[in-house]
Queue: 4 jobs
Job 1
Amino acid sequence: MPDMTAPYTSTRYRPRKKDLHVTFGHYYRVDVFNSTLDKQLHELNSRFNEDAMELLSLSSSLASKEINVDQICLLVEKYYPTDFNDQDITHLRYQLELFNIERSNNTKLSGASTISDLCKSLVDTKKRETYYLVDRVIRLILTLPVSTATTERGFSAMKIFKNRLRNKMSDDYLANSLVIYIEKEIAENFDSESIIDEFKNLKGRRAEL
């Protein structure tokens, strides 16, 4: 292990006089560690927009020892308006307050360190029906990684399908082709004969397929 207080000399570039004060510690901390963090932060910022980051930040309260009721209600109002009406949000607030009290007295619920563990704990303790709105919020949040991955795969597949030679295909045809390509593991289970029979039954044909 090098002496972190010793002057650092680059083996790739010719050293300059003003670089003589740079130590190994400064090099690894600034040029290596901080540069790596900057690249990772840039990648995360380009992958997740502000809404996604806010959604993840608000949902992190579910994994804490005490759920922030105001944060979860704000999350539901802003991002899931079609899944919760005004009455549901009011009941959700009451359920979250009661859940915080019961969670502090229940070792199985308090032992959940992640949102997925909390979802499993609700099922194991048979509290899913009691706190059905809390369970709904958790399950909606747990679908975020799947939704993000599916969206990314969709954009990647679109670059393959809609190229210069196929730029005039209709939206319906493009959507159907993308579904088959993205979900190709499921599509491989379909039999060609069953697809032909289904297509034939949709409309009467003059000739047999």
Job 2
Amino acid sequence: MISLNILPTTLTTLAFFRLCSIVTGTIAGIFFLHPAGLYAGELHQHIEVKIVDQRVQASFCQPEKGCSLVRPETLGLPAAQMPIDKLTGIPIYVSEFIIFPDRTAIDSPGFEGLEGDMTPGDRVRYLAGGHLSYWSTDKRQWTLAPNNIQVRLAGGLDLAPDQDCGQVFCIPETVEGFTLFNRHGIEGASSLIVGEIRSDGSLHTHLDWIIETADGNSAAPAGAYMVELRLITESFPEPSDILWIMFNNGLALEDFQQAVAGRVLQSNTDTALADRLFTWAESNHPALFPHASTSFVASGYYARCYQNGVCVAVKDNHVFAVGGEFGTSIIQLGEFDVLTAQAGF
């Protein structure tokens, strides 16, 4: 398999950006984000990637083996408690945007594989999913990101289509792509190459995360933002479990700790209230939600599914539906607290 390291790319700007982040990260973190808080270097970490039982496994890395890990105490958590979502059990990896003259961005978390953990020459890809979640000091609860705000994941590669050089052996060409996360879901490429496994079976790579408005302006509201990924490799295409990446964008440390606590130390969804809303919907709209059903947690949602193929779910203070009359794509029905109030709860 041809190594991506020898292929021409258009990542000069991104490589320069990474160099700048090393040199100016502390300055930018201290003087631009929040002078009295932590700086971005404290939220730099790696996601450990390896193959377990013929499938990619992503996990918190092991600092004793040379990688970076954010300490739970930095996030306001007990010393032994890693940031794992209380309701769903999904791990949360944290990072922090830095303000540069032309963008607000960061290249953390990185992806790290230890020697011998994977197959040399295999390529790791991400699968983007979900929607862009948001926490602010105004409401102090997790919801969907404001309209017109997106997180751009840049630096991922893909093989150019229809490659035929007319020779027996061709060096494959790559193209740079990007993925956009917003309140409505995913735009752009939903899957790109993270990196290629080295000859010793290890991996170390970083992509670039940029927060911006839909027209490319860097003036996004302060808050915590969170995106969803799964990982695969070309040799092991079964997706990993979901992982979430949470970014601090200009919050003071104590506020960011509250955003983390809103996922880790308490359930983000009032499941008892969600069950009441589901039951109310079954009674008042039996054609859409026929027969009583049991609630469950899946893919980050608290949900119920019905015999007609409809599923309804709550996440980030919003109610979603898919299947049956709602179609094959997940749609938003409205804000959870508004719908529960309309139902009389």
Job 3
Amino acid sequence: MAATGTNPLDRAERFIWLTARVLEQRRFAHQYLEGGADAVETALTAYANEDGGYGHALEPDLRGPVSQPLHTAHALSVLDSIGRCGGLRVERICRYLTEVSTKEGALPALLPSQRDYPAAPFIPIVDDPPAELLATGPVVGLLHRNEVWHAWLFRATDFCWSAVDALEVSHPYEIEAAVAFLDGVPDRRRAEEAAERLGRLVRDQRLAVLDPDRRAEYPVAPGYAPGEQHFPYDYARTPASLARRWFSDTEMERSLDHLAAAQEEDGGWPVTWRQWAPGTALEGRPLVTLRALETLRAHGRVLF
């Protein structure tokens, strides 16, 4: 039975049942309604391809059936959320990652096979895409955090270290990817040192809105949509994240207040990135809503 209450979780539940794909419905049920992990994994299987990767618009801004690294990273995050980031399925994913990696042993954001299908205009499609921290960092960090062993990780980890160490001018999504890597990589001392430097970079380059009431004073990164700014909670998704050390308690609480207040009348949270097609925006909002709920809960906010 659908929720009819007025607390944030009840409102979000109604929004999920009203708008979300089956996968996001199953994820919500697993996280908040004692739903089974098997149902989530079954729903995810619909996006899997024979090459071991994932496609079929699992990441809504990339349409079409072809496997892409960003889809596959999304699939890994779903498996991680249900405690199933291991076994034969992840072995097949790692084989796929090996096959599509660049000469550096790391992942490009987008393979040229996407050219035959619709994709967000702000994601460039090139014939020989370079390896990117944006695509590789979250995957490497997640696999390390789940104690996955695979040969692909050796060179991919080295690539991420080099990319993180080289960061001097960056943008919010790249910093998020770096944090995802640093939060999972085994060398904790080196990760803490790198995170400390990135925290200074974020503050110096004003890549986080530290006071939502003065949001207009913070720049929007080049190429981002108007208002597509990032807040402390975007980097520190959990209190255990190394990025949590970048922000004072006051800054963190203000950002969480802002996140909680962003829930819209229909129960969902808004998409802030550039919207280019009606269907992608519709599919994106449940994903943003799940992430908002997860972040608020991780930081101890009461949802009901």
Job 4
Amino acid sequence: MVVYENAMIAAAAETTQVADFVAKRQFAPMYIWLDIAFLLVFAGLLLWRRKTMTVLVGLAAGVLYFAVDYGIFNLALHTRSIEGGSMFWVLLWMSMSYGFTNFAWIWLWISKDSHLFEWSLLILGWWFCAPPIVQTLVARFAPDQADHPIIIQRTTGAYHGWMALILFVGYLALIIWNLAHERRSQRVNIPWLLAIGVLVQFGWELGLLIGGIRSAGLGLQETLKPLVVNSLLETNLGMPYVYVIFLAVTARYTETLSKRTHPITMLERLAENNAECVTH
């Protein structure tokens, strides 16, 4: 009996170890300031193109990211650790950076913006170009930052299961909705949402990985796990809920926050969105 119990405990520990992994970032402080400059440029371009709702969605997402990352992951679950910086300020920047960029980009995708290619190129271009730019500038103007980088990491075992549950429930609801509606115009385009949810996260995970920021100093398996698992799970889990919010808001308001001349129902907005297409 004792042997059996020990075997069960060992198996459970092994399962936990497999499910858990470290998501780590290492970067010079200069990276933060250059990224803030990019965020200001990005937000300015959105406002120039009268994407007021998109900017507000991005800001709200940044606040939500910070509440989850600092409040839950750090304070409640104690999964965060940091070297060389302030946990509060670094997480505030990270949350606003990726929260704003991710969800502004998602909103542009969902709304099938006519300049989606340009917005996507801008965001992906920055994610891929920022690390080597920072490395060059640090080597030239602030070599001490290379010796004293900020290292921040988190483990995932305490919450990825809950994230998976949220993801499953959200997409299950969409599947049931589609099965209950025969007219194609009234069905949610699930492949489109999946593509957005996976590719947005994959884009910045890959950018961080190639730039040497993500999983620096870790082995191949520990490096690839965040890329694959986070891309499938972390941003993607919110897509069904974000889409419902999108339908509810845009059924009554335009991108400039003015009321639609003729407000429509969410079902009508779904059909309208399905009929829209990305043009370039």
